[in-house]
Amino acid sequence: MQRKIITTADGSKTIQIEDWNEQYHSVHGAVQEANHVYIKHGLLFFIEEYASKYNSIAILEIGFGTGLNAILTLLSSEKLNLNINYFGVEAYPVSSDELQHLNYSEILDITDNSFQSIHNCDWESTHHISKHFSLTKLKKLFNDINDVNCYDIIYFDAFGARVQPELWTEALFKKMYAALKQNGVLVTYSSKGTVKRALKAVGFTIERLDGPPGKRHMLRAIKR
């Protein structure tokens, strides 16, 4: 499929799959969307609610993609002085050529090589990228995830249901529910009714929240 690098409304770049008219991040602002959905309403929400009980937390990302959510989480781990074990699942990694054209280090004022490190490190192994952030990249299909009671937070950042409806089913969300610990949090940019119903059907408590720029709503699901 044809792919190209585009600039989103906040100046940060993303990858567009032209055949699908689908992007890895919002055209209204890649960094804005990631910060709003995954950092503010995922990580920071969990920290505010439960962090006093934890020395470290584990995060699973469904759709590692460009690594934007990972680098934002790394930066947050340093600010929060919190150890984060991050697991990114991706069946089709972004190419090294595409990565060279992404401007996240510039946009986020990153002066070290941490963004490069999260992409250069080997798959299927755990790497300590910074003092508070370890990364394990797993190259596999989302349906092959069979973890149980492993994660505190899931960033569900798969391609949209319009182009890949098979990634937004009760069957897959049942796996996500099992993978989370008690009181675990799943956040996603999607607010589709079918997604909301599928999350409820497997046992999640659902909250519909204000979405990032350009999108009315998003969803947060909690395993009570």
Strand content: 25-35%
| Beta strands, count | 11
Unreliable runs: none
CATH class: Alpha Beta
Please report the distance between the alpha carbons of the first and last residues: 41 Å
Tell me the number of structural domains.
1
Evaluate the radius of gyration.
Answer: 16 Å
CATH topology: Rossmann fold
Count, helices: 7
Strand order of the largest sheet: 6-7-5-4-8-9-11-10
Rounded mean pLDDT is 96
> Major β-sheet, in short?
8 strands, mixed
Shape: globular
Topology record:
Blueprint: E1 3-7, E2 13-17, E3 22-23, H1 30-50, E4 56-62, H2 68-80, E5 83-89, H3 96-100, H4 104-107, H5 114-120, E6 126-130, E7 133-138, E8 151-156, H6 170-179, E9 180-188, H7 193-201, E10 205-210, E11 217-222
Helix pairs in contact: 1-2
Explained architecture:
- The chain is α/β, with parallel strands linked by helices and about 220 residues long.
- It has a single domain (about 30-105, about 115-220), classed as Vaccinia Virus protein VP39 (Rossmann fold), CATH 3.40.50.150.
- It is about 30% helix and about 30% strand.
- The protein contains seven helices and eleven strands.
- The chain has helices at about 30-50, 70-80, 95-100, 105, 115-120, 170-180, 195-200, and strands at about 5, 15, 20-25, 55-60, 85-90, 125-130, 135-140, 150-155, 180-190, 205-210, 215-220.
- The strands form two sheets. The protein has an eight-stranded mixed β-sheet, sandwiched between helices.
- Helix 1 crosses helix 2.
- It is globular.
- The mean pLDDT is about 95.
